[in-house]
Amino acid sequence: MSFFKKLKEKLTTSTDQAAEKFKTGLTKTRDNFSSKVNDLVARYRKIDEDFFEELEEILIGADVGFDTVMDLIEQLKHEVKRRNTKDPAEVRDIITEKLVAIYQNGEETPNELNIQEEGLTVILFVGVNGVGKTTTIGKLAHKFKSEGKTVLLAAGDTFRAGAIEQLEVWGERTGVDVIKQGEGSDPAAVMYDAVRAAKSRNADILLCDTAGRLQNKVNLMKELEKVKRVIEREVPGAPHEVLIVLDATTGQNAMVQAKTFKEATDVSGIVLTKLDGTAKGGIVLAIRKELEIPVKFVGLGEKMDDLQQFDAEKYVYGLFSTAFEETEQDSEEEE
Amino acid sequence: MAFEGLADRLQNTMQKIRGKGKVTEADVKEMMREVRLALLEADVNFKVVKNFVKKVSERSVGQEVMKSLTPGQQVIKVVKEELTELMGGEQSQIAVAKRSPTVIMMVGLQGAGKTTTTGKLANLLRKRYNRKPLLVAADIYRPAAIKQLETLGKQLNMPVFSLGDQVSPVEIAKQAIEQAKADHHDYVLIDTAGRLHVDEDLMGELKDIKELTNPDEIFLVVDAMTGQDAVNVAQSFNDQLGVTGVILTKLDGDTRGGAALSIRAVTEKPIKFAGMGEKLDALEPFHPERMASRILGMGDVLTLIEKAQTNVDSEKAKELEQKMRTMSFTFDDFLEQLGQVRSMGPLDEIIKMLPGANKIKGLNNVQVDEKQISHIEAIIQSMTSEEKQHPEIISSGRKKRIAKGSGTSIQEVNRLLKQFEEMKKMMKQMSGMQQKGKKKGMPFKFPFM
Q1: Within a 13 Å sphere around the CA of B430, how many CA atoms are in the beta-carbon half?
Q2: Residues pairing with B192 in the sheet
Q3: Nearest to A253 by CA among B182, B343, B255
Q4: Which residue from A277, A211, A217 is spatially nearest to A247, judged by alpha carbons?
Q5: From B113, which residue of chain A is nearest by alpha-carbon distance?
Q6: Which family does it belong to (chain B) (predicted)?
Q7: Any chain A CB within 8 A of the CB of B186?
């Protein structure tokens, strides 16, 4: 049985809404990527340099990240040689296998949030401008609230016009209080207030928004370090998660973002947003591999519940299922 | 290594070829592979890259390069020329309608920076063209988007037209134009909600606004960090709306900005402006040839020169040069020089603009500590004028006083004095070097690097 069949079986036995949602959200991603792989496979009768070069382009077109692509191609070449594969269709199975392997990195990928059973859990959100930090916080507030948790939001983006109001709207929508100061105030001071408030109100979850900042702005990155230090000082072991929000539309710079924000704030996970467009977000594979930061959530739309826990197998399944179903049909027809 | 600059890649290959007298077709092929990979790494779409490489390759294999005595430089020239051509000429003018008001629509994906850019553009119109724009809040979907534009309007002291978030954007646009006519605004800037290019309903809404307002400009706002998907987004918006120009945002980041090339190639529409910072005056005309250099990693020398020209007094520079030569360079001069350099912007950004700075050891990853510069300034300012002129008189007692006065330590004062001495020595060597025609490494090291 091919790798993909096994994966499919494993997943169809546990079909749940989330998987379905994941699939719909990823339809465009999948259509694009897998139909290209299929095109490629159909067009080539033998595996040669041109085949690999085109495969390379498909993967780069998915923003997978240059090094990862090179790595993958090397591995594929090696596998093809080892297995003496002559049929490009077989290569696709190997591609899938390798992509999952790259992501898994030989271990069960941690996609659960580090939520404290007792006491306060503080989650800090970081990232560049316009990736969807505030929206993600709104969605997560909704998620925790509906799990019966007491949630507080910290309006740490005191810089961008309207940012505090934006978070407040989410607070109203989800029925969650927002701790804030005025625009232009010190974000570290806001965090201090928020942590104090969360402790005195016995809140379960504190979600901390921060202003978007480009990672090459040294002073702004230092400000972020300070924000984190304030949280560390007030709650031992906090922040329990530092989530970097990445826009799936972003290209190779997402790697630099992940790296720099990790250096500054010890990022523990990724939220990959805007995956409902045509962008593929393939860079997360490279980030996982090079920086060992796992994806924890993906944003698949603008609604409150359009945030799903990331699952590597489902993700890859979403990327490849069309390709697989098509070949299944083909082989049935052949029979 | 990931994220190697285009320049690094090309330089490495060119160095291999530079050694040879003649270039073979195989050499060109290898070079082209490097060019291709470098462009892909810079996020240029792979289809665009393919065409580009084909073009460059044809010219390179042809007479131009192979028969050239300096094939490496010739290839760089060809690449740069083709890149600049692809990026198009400089076109930062904004349409003016025959009958006022001129209507501008701002469109793009979520988070591209439309609202901020709308504010910046209004500021530019008023400042540079003496216009009187009306800002229109037509993003009724994102929470507090209207509030954001209103806040920007307040900062700019400009009126913002809004009907709240319960009226359709088409209606808002319609009424806004009536209002603009009544109030004699000559420009109307419509800030629309961010949307996916594949969202048919919302794209339909933009078409409706376009139909109704008959805009003179439709600016597609695109994040400079966009990856391969830039072609899909640009193509789709352009096909459905017929954009008239592109504004590239967040170009003050460290992205290679290959999206610029992709967008330009698929839409053939000019990139008119670039967002260069979070402040409301940080919108600059887009310079295609500079962007080409940036993508090639050749350093943004032109911007640096411009900055230097506006910030450095040429008379003073001459005077300083004289002092360097005659070794009469004092702490006063140093302080002044420091101030001039700092007025050009954050130092690490200035260093990044230097061509080849990423190649010089110790300069490639330099993190300039602005705080440390402030310390240095404080130390010098704590010296008496006699000490500044004749630092050799600074005894340990004086050092103690200086350290106390500047809130630093004696060690720091010592370090600065030592480095200043070294700097002076270097300057002497440099002026000596000019006669001998010998060059060795970095001229001198600033104490704060």
Answers
A1: 17
A2: B138
A3: B255
A4: A277
A5: A130
A6: Belongs to the GTP-binding SRP family. SRP54 subfamily.
A7: no
Radius of gyration of chain A (CA): 22
Closest partner residue to A249 (CB to CB) among B198, B229, B253 is B229
Structure tokens, A232: 């560390």
Q: Do residues B76 and B64 lie in contact, with contact meaning Cβ atoms separated by under 8 Å?
A: no
- Shortest CA gap A278–chain B (Å): 7
Q: Is B118 on the interface with A (CB under 8 A)?
A: no
Distance from CA of B39 to the nearest CA of A (A): 11
On the question of a cis peptide bond just before residue B101, with omega within 30 degrees of 0, the verdict is yes
Task: Determine if residue B120 is labeled as part of a ligand binding site.
Answer: no
**Of the partner residues B41, B50, B229, the one whose CB lies closest to the CB of residue A252:** B41
Could you tell me how many CB contacts below 8 A there are between chain A and chain B? 157
B110 is an annotated ligand-binding site residue: yes
Per-residue pLDDT in tens (0 to 9) along chain B, 449 residues: 234 455 566 566 666 665 566 667 777 787 788 788 878 888 999 889 989 999 888 887 775 666 665 666 667 778 878 888 888 877 778 999 998 899 999 999 999 999 999 999 999 999 999 999 999 999 999 999 999 999 999 999 999 999 999 999 999 999 999 999 999 999 999 999 999 999 999 999 999 999 999 999 999 999 999 999 999 999 999 999 999 999 999 999 888 888 999 999 999 999 999 999 989 999 999 988 878 777 776 554 445 555 555 555 556 666 766 776 666 778 887 787 777 666 666 666 666 555 555 555 455 555 566 777 788 888 988 998 888 888 888 888 999 999 999 888 888 899 888 888 877 777 766 655 544 443 444 444 444 43
